[in-house]
Amino acid sequence: MTHLVLAPLAGAGGLFAMFVDVARATFRRPFAAREYVDQTWFVARVTTLPTALVAIPFGAVIALQLGSLTRQLGAQSYTGAASALAIIREAAPIATALLVAGAAGTAICSDLGARRVREEIDALEVLGIDPVQRLVVPRVLAAITVAVLLNGFVAFVGIVGGYFFSVGLQGSSAGSYFAGFATLAQSSDLYVGALKAAIFGLIAGVVASYKGLTASGGPQGVGDAVNAAVVQTFLLLFSVNFLITAVYTEIVPPRGR
């Protein structure tokens, strides 16, 4: 019974320690620049197309739902503004994070887990090479970089996709869709969206790396670590997203107040 209680606490403590180790190792020299470039290219390659394909229905669903609601309220001119606000502030960071965690995070976890069970990580430690600095930091920074870049891309694709679905299926005019863009959204919404994407990329990279480095039990253990990494990352992403949104809405007043 005691083991069942202490095991989650030990896992949470180990994950927090990994965050601290990554923060320390990020500013330590030498920096694995080539590994960072390779990992950034890999993460971008496996996430760009799926993220773009996910962004289209995200934008379409938001535009269709808001278009129906604004027509009932007689405020069709606000469809574009509300859609852009929802996509930039919420949908784009979440879609980006889910794909980075699901596609890139699993690859990072399985790669590090395979290195652990093959005892390559132990060999690095014997040679005096810090695996966090050499392997984890480049992957975490790559996840953050790609998440921030994809966030803007997803926002653009989502808004454009929402426009075509709103105008094509609901008969809204292009002028009414774009007319209210500046009435609700503000520059701080772009900043908080980018901040969310960066934090989500950090969480996805650190959790995947931690579960990979702590994998044990051969190939089955690596598979279990990958599954646990995805589940834990998603739980943390939604929890952190709620906290950031709650704090942001309290600190930054909406436009027009």
Automatic annotation (TrEMBL):
* Transmembrane spans: 41-64, 140-165, 190-213, 225-248
Q: List the molecular function annotations (GO) for this entry.
A: phospholipid transporter activity
- Domain of life here? Bacteria
Its keywords, alphabetically, are: Membrane, Transmembrane, Transmembrane helix
Might you report a single GO cellular component term?
A: ATP-binding cassette (ABC) transporter complex
Q: Which residues form a coiled coil?
A: none
Recorded protein name is: Phospholipid/cholesterol/gamma-HCH transport system permease protein
Q: Which organism is it from?
A: Nocardioides marinus
